């Protein structure tokens, strides 16, 4: 249950009616550095609305003036699960014995399998998985809303977790304030104004589902219902409290008029419970009512004070200062202006982004939550969110909590722990039933209902390593806190279960005898194999963690031994491949061009700890990361921040942060995959923390990856493993002070570059501490509750220009300063420079630096040639006796040559053939790829290239250069669906830092990825017709789109410009891989190294100035597809110059090599055979069109086809496949092709003998077409096939069965033949004819074995013989039953039957005792039974006598007696 509060109309104590705060101040104040703010209302939920939350409940605030929209969620409101028919928890609906073993065997044999084939064997479609649901929207409709406002401001304070809206209209200052309070589990809002009686609105609720009722009474709006899919009950109550004015409750809404202020309170809940297997609890009504009642009884100020105090306890633990300066501009503008450079405004966005991640986790995951943060945290506005807003456990859920312990938010992990523990029960069943293993398992994704099995999407259905990965965080929590009770009671049982699964499921690799995961799949990349690197690294980690936990707790010695043995045999999953990379798979399959967003094989680097920077594996990981590139989705970039931080490369980590902020972050600072996924926010915050403090190897490493752009700053409150809190500050890019606060007494190790220089260590009382030093690591015995500070006593600074140019020298100054009381010894200074750069001199010596007397060394640095990079780093290295120091500087660089402003880079005019000439003079000629070039005569020039969805334009590799501004223009016809390329010179996944990409989105908007950003322009491009499309980019990053000369939209990239510094093909209508092809057409297209003005846009074709006229030839009749006419052809020529050209002068033609003739009227071409018409046009400027040709060929006779099937059997039936040979002839143009249709199916080109298979009658239709397009009349041949014998079904008797002779069997059979039909069916019993349906009394058969044979023959002569063998035996029960039967049939008298039953019952008594010595008694009693049978007074019927004597003698023999007559 969760709650959101809206207070209007409830009678409350006077203190609940707090005076409203002045609104005007809220509307105009300058933000602090931890406030998101905007100068207009939100119109889009995903990109603009602001999130608030308290863990269980979330809401998005839009801030509309006429209508306020508050979309809200309660985290447990989910469709699907046990309440929905067919829900199976992902477990196989029917057993698949041996299925996994089959896959393992194939992998052992073949090495790998496609995801499709594995999914076909092991996958299963989702059933009742469900989706996270919106609770709907609250709307506050404002009557007589102002048409215009001033001072509008919408904001979210991260310091207080409060959202505000303020504006002034008609002299009245209005304000709104919203917060989600974890105390009381409510969200509270207040509307107020600085003049009385100005607050009026109508409160209503909407939902995209029709499954609820809404009622209003006593100022309370009650929303109640049950989801259709699973009948989950849900309820929300909104209470409205007013000060002044009136309130009216009417139907499903509440109206407030003329109030001074109003407070609203909303609480919501469901009957979900986390208990497997039902996942249902109590009706939410009581809890929701109690929450609303309790909140409404308090004043707004009381509610806010409780909320802020609760929030501050978490948020205020960590503070980050990056030396930022927060400009007075809205946050969306701050993000658009962001470059990732040295500006303090960029630091403001980065610090805000770090804090935002912590805010979002506090808002979506609290200790009283039932569920953890999902793919969207707690926020969702639809019924079918992307990926169901579920729990993806192949990285996403784990990434949500990477920041929790690091950034001092331990309490937020509680719902994560509960959720993982709740999967153990369903996961245990999945492990046992599907994998035959102990422990528990979960795969790629799950829901709140214990979905631990599989689905069937090939690229993501299989990931049993997920359970092990989810436990990593729990063990890490223990490492951060040192809480042994938590380890024993919470973490260890879950970790042990995940480890037990792998102890049972690991597979012996026949290649080397190592234990591997099989089948294994590196998430969403490549093929299935055995022992993929990520799989092995995860299993290694869970086994190691389980073993360490058991040893710490002194538990489970047998389990410890089992794990130890498994670890000794486990393949480590860390290998260095042929090009120096860390292999993603056990076999070296990695491609240097693979830029997949998952970098799964680096798990051991992060979040694992098996790979360390500076080791061979660490260097290999760096090579892999560089090959993967800096693109990817939002969460992928966030992961790469962490990777580079772990590799101790702060600048590359910062580059990935910058890429995420520039191209994977929305205006409201939410991360976008796209679409929105919150894990990217959490991962980025974790990455920033990793840049500042690391402790994965039990050493507190401070500033391990400090980027050179962060010159000065500080952080307080970060956490390190070992229950350590860290405060630290840096100046000039070097550590200044580090304060360590251990939570436990014991040895501690601290690593930092500060240790290699001059430093001092003291405790909180100022007493000096003398730690042991080993390189850059200090160690000492720390006391819990004490604070230890390490102070740097020397500073090294590097002064260099902000920007440099290739080959242009500049001075670099390195200064050593004694910043405290002691002198800094003399030192040697050198520079580390990029490849190809030089420094003069190579080194300098500096004397000792005393306090107040710094020492400076100056170098002349000459940059090398352009390398394609926008930045270059130089590092100053200072080394003295027993100390070292360093400093760095990052310089902006021109990445490569830049074409002259205004130059035309490419000018295409597709006219004919497979090559499009570049008229710009740069030689960027394009080929038509993907199919045959065809042209559209309706194009603006009369010869636009048809883009069929297969065809596209591609040049050879070419260098566009660095373009600080540019124009892209084309005459284009847009068709098709999905993403469709226009211009492309960019590798897939690049965020806009390498080349340019302009395409059309699925909603037909134009998107530009370049200049350091990906921007979608808010205008829909016309489709299905030719348009004049121009896109300009200026030096500030402003993008402008024009359609048919009119400006349609603008967007903002960065000021980086387009970096075309890598030689690759330039394409139109396809991406670099040949995908995302455009359907439609393209005529003239140009790229100009200049941003055209709006006036120039209309004349871009003249500016290109390279176009000759274009002539179009049309035929009457139209040109056939094969080029052959079936009669005379009339050819008309028409030509046109470009719209802004000089105009057409003349058209000429030449027929079959004759003289050139001025064109005046259509050209008539007659006569069989091929003809060639050449033609050209010239404009008034003298531009002569390249000669075009038209081939005209004539043929009027259709081809002739014959069919020759193999001869048939009697009745025309074939008993096997029937080959049919088709032969076609054409005496003129030749046969273009023969096609056939079998049994009404699709027409198929004939290439070889048609083999007709399958039982039944088949019709083969056929026809041929010649190269002139003449089509033969359809012919047909009929073929009948029956290649299967009949099927015989025998009933009433089962093969191999032993029957008592007292039974009757109704023996029947049926023969079925779906082909030619059954001809005969016969049956025999023991060789004697038998009719179906015969009721056979078994006492009439001899004791022993009998054989039933049924033979069926079909009309094609196929025969089936079905044999059933059974046996007949007797027992005392059978004899007793026969006596009753014979008596009932009148074959025994009642007296005789009674005597016989008496005798046989006595035999039964002895049988029941079951002792060996009772067999003699059995024999005696059987002999008396025989005597009784032989007495004619008892048995007079010969058949009865023979039957009973036979059965009795059989039992006598069975018990060791002698048969009697």
Short description:
This protein is of the alpha+beta class. The chain contains 25 helices and 83 strands.
Number of DSSP E strands: 83
CATH superfamily of the domain at 2-77 and 134-316: putative glycoside hydrolase family protein from bacillus halodurans
Query: Would you identify the CATH architecture of the domain at 2-77 and 134-316?
Result: Distorted Sandwich
Question: Beta fraction of the residues?
Answer: 25-35%
Main sheet specs: 10 strands, antiparallel
Measured distance between first and last alpha carbons: 87 Å
Please, how many helices? 25
Structural class of the secondary structure composition?
alpha+beta
Average pLDDT taken over every residue: 92
Helical amount: 10-25%
Shape: globular
Top CATH class of the domain at 2-77 and 134-316 = Mainly Beta
Low-confidence stretches: 1-30
What is the alpha-carbon Rg in Å? 42 Å
Pfam families: FIMAH, Glyco_hyd_65N_2, Glyco_hydro_95_C, Glyco_hydro_95_cat, Laminin_G_3
Organism: Acrocarpospora corrugata
Keywords: Signal
Domain PI-PLC Y-box: 1099-1159
């Amino acid at each position: 249950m969760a709650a959101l509060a809206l207070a209007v109309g409830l009678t409350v104590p006077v203190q609940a009616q707090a005076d409203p705060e002045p609104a005007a101040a809220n509307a105009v104040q300058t933000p602090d550095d931890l406030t998101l703010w905007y100068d207009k209302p939100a119109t889009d939920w995903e990109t603009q609305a602001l999130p608030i939350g308290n863990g269980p409940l979330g809401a998005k605030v839009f801030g509309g003036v006429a209508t306020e929209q508050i979309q809200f969620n309660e985290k447990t409101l989910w469709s699907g699960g046990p309440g929905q028919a067919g829900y199976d928890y992902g477990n196989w609906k029917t057993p698949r014995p041996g299925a996994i073993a089959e896959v393992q065997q194939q992998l052992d044999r073949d090495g790998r399998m496609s995801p499709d084939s594995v999914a076909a064997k092991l996958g299963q479609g989702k059933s009742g998985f469900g989706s996270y649901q919106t609770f709907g929207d609250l709307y506050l409709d404002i009557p007589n809303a102002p048409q215009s406002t001033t001072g509008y401001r919408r904001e979210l304070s991260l310091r207080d977790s409060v959202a505000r809206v303020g504006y002034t209209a008609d002299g009245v200052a209005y304000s709104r304030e919203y917060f989600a309070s974890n105390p009381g589990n409510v969200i509270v809002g207040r509307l107020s104004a600085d003049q009385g009686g100005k607050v009026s609105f109508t409160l209503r609720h909407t939902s995209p589902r029709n499954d609820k009722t809404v009622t209003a009474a006593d100022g309370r709006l009650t929303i109640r219902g049950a989801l259709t899919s699973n009948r989950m009950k849900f309820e929300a109550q909104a209470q409205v409290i007013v000060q002044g004015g009136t309130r009216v409750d009417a139907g499903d809404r509440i109206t407030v008029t003329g109030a001074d202020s109003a407070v609203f309170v909303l609480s919501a809940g469901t009957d979900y419970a986390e208990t497997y297997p039902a996942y249902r609890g109590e009706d939410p009504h009581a809890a929701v009512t109690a929450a609303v009642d309790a909140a409404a009884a308090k004043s707004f100020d009381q509610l806010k004070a409780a909320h802020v105090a609760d929030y501050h306890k978490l948020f205020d633990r960590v503070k980050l200062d990056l030396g930022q300066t927060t400009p007075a501009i809205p946050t969306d503008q701050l993000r658009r202006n962001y470059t990732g450079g040295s500006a303090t405004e960029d630091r403001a966005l980065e610090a805000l982004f770090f804090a935002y991640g912590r805010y979002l986790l506090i808002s979506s995951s609290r200790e009283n939550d039932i569920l953890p943060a999902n793919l969207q945290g707690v926020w969702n506005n639809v019924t079918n969110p992307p990926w169901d807003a579920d729990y993806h456990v192949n990285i996403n859920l784990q990434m949500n909590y990477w920041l929790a312990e690091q950034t001092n938010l331990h309490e937020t992990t509680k719902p994560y722990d509960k959720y993982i523990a709740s999967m153990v029960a369903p996961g245990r069943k999945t492990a046992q039933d599907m994998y035959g293993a102990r422990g528990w398992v979960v795969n790629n994704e799950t829901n709140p209902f214990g979905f631990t099995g599989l689905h069937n999407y090939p690229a993501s259905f299989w990931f049993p390593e997920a359970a092990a990965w989810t436990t990593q965080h729990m063990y890490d929590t223990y490492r951060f806190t040192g809480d042994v009770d938590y380890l024993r009671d919470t973490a260890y049982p879950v970790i042990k279960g995940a480890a037990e699964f792998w102890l049972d499921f690991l597979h012996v690799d026949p290649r080397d005898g190592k234990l591997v995961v099989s089948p294994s799949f590196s998430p969403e990349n490549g093929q299935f194999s055995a022992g993929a690197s990520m799989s092995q690294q995860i299993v290694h980690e869970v086994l190691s963690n389980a073993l360490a936990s058991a040893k710490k707790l002194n538990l489970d010695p047998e389990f410890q031994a089992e794990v130890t043995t498994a670890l000794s045999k486990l393949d480590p999953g860390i290998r260095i491949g042929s090009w120096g990379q860390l292999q993603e798979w056990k076999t070296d399959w990695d491609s240097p061009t693979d830029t997949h967003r998952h970098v799964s094989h680096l798990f051991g680097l992060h979040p694992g700890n098996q790979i360390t920077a500076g080791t061979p594996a660490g260097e290999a990981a760096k090579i892999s990361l560089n090959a993967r590139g800096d693109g990817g989705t939002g969460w992928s970039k966030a992961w790469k921040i962490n990777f580079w931080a772990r590799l101790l490369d702060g600048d590359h980590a910062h580059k990935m942060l910058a890429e995420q902020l520039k191209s994977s972050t929305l205006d409201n600072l939410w991360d976008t995959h796209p679409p929105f996924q919150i894990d990217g926010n959490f991962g980025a915050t974790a990455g920033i923390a990793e840049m500042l403090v690391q402790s994965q190897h039990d050493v507190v490493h401070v500033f391990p990856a400090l980027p050179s752009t962060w010159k000065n700053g500080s952080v307080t409150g970060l956490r390190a493993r070992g229950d350590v809190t860290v405060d630290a500050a840096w100046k000039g890019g070097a550590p200044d002070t580090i304060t360590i606060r251990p939570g436990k007494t014991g040895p501690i190790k601290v690593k930092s570059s500060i240790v290699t220089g001059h430093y001092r260590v003291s405790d909180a009382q100022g007493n000096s501490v003398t730690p042991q030093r080993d390189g850059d690591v200090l160690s000492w015995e720390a006391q819990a509750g004490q604070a230890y500070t390490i102070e740097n006593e020397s500073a090294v600074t590097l002064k260099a220009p902000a920007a440099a140019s290739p080959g242009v020298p500049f001075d670099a100054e390195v200064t050593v300063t004694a910043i405290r009381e002691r002198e800094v010894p003399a030192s040697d200074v050198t520079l580390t420079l990029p490849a190809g750069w030089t420094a003069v001199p190579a080194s300098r010596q500096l004397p000792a630096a005393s306090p107040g007397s710094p020492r400076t060394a100056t170098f002349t640095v000459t940059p090398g040639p352009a390398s394609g990079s926008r930045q270059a780093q130089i590092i100053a290295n200072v080394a003295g006796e027993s100390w070292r120091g360093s400093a760095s500087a990052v310089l902006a660089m021109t990445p490569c040559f830049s074409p002259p402003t205004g130059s035309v880079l490419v000018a295409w005019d597709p006219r004919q053939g497979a090559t499009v000439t570049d008229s710009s003079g740069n030689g960027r000629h394009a080929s038509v790829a993907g199919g045959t070039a065809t042209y559209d005569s309706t194009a603006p020039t009369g010869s636009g290239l048809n883009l069929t969805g297969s065809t596209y334009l591609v040049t050879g590799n070419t260098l566009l250069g660095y373009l600080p501004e540019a124009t892209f223009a084309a005459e284009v016809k847009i068709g098709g669906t999905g993403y469709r390329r226009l211009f492309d010179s960019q590798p897939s996944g690049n965020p806009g830092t390498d080349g340019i990409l302009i395409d059309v989105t699925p909603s037909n908007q134009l998107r530009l990825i370049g200049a350091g950003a990906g921007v979608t322009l808010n205008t829909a491009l016309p489709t299905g017709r030719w348009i004049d499309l121009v896109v300009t980019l200026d030096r500030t990053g402003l993008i402008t789109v024009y359609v048919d000369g009119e400006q349609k939209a603008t967007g903002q990239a960065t000021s980086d410009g387009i970096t075309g510094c890598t030689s690759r093909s330039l394409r139109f209508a396809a991406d670099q891989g040949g995908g995302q092809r455009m359907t439609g057409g393209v005529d003239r297209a140009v790229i100009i190294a200049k941003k055209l003005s709006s006036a120039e846009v209309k004349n871009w074709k003249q500016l290109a100035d390279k176009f000759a006229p274009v002539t179009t030839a049309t035929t009457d009749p139209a040109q056939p597809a094969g080029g052959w006419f079936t009669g005379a052809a009339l050819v008309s020529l028409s030509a046109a110059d470009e719209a802004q050209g000089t105009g057409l002068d003349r058209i000429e033609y030449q027929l079959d090599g004759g003289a050139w003739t001025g064109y005046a009227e259509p050209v008539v071409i007659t006569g069989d055979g091929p003809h060639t018409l050449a033609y050209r046009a010239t404009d008034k400027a003298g531009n002569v069109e390249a000669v075009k040709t038209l081939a005209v060929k004539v043929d009027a006779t259709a081809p002739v086809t014959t069919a020759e099937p193999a001869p048939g059997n009697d009745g025309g039936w074939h008993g096997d496949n029937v080959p049919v040979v088709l032969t076609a002839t054409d005496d003129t143009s030749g046969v273009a092709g023969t096609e056939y249709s079998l049994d009404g199916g699709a027409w198929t080109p004939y290439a070889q003998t048609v083999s007709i298979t399958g039982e039944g009658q088949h019709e083969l239709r056929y026809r041929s077409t010649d190269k002139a397009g003449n089509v033969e009349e359809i012919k047909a041949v009929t073929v009948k096939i029956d290649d299967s014998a009949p099927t015989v079904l025998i009933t009433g008797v089962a093969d191999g069965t032993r029957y008592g002779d007292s039974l009757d069997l109704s023996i029947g059979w049926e023969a079925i033949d779906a082909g030619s039909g059954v001809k005969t069916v016969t049956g025999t019993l023991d060789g004697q004819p038998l009719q179906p349906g015969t009721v056979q009394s078994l006492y009439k058969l001899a004791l022993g074995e009998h054989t039933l044979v049924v033979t069926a023959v079909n009309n094609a002569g196929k025969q089936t013989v079905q044999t059933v063998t059974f046996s007949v035996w007797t027992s005392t029960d059978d004899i007793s039953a026969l006596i009753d039967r014979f008596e009932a049939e009148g074959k025994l008298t009642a007296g005789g039957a009674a005597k016989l039953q008496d005798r046989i019952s006595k035999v039964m008594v002895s049988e029941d005792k079951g002792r060996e010595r009772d067999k003699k008694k059995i024999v005696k009693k059987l002999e008396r039974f025989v005597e009784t049978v032989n007495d004619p007074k008892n048995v007079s019927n010969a058949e009865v006598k023979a039957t009973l004597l036979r059965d009795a003698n059989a039992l006598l023999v069975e018990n060791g007696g002698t048969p009697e007559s």
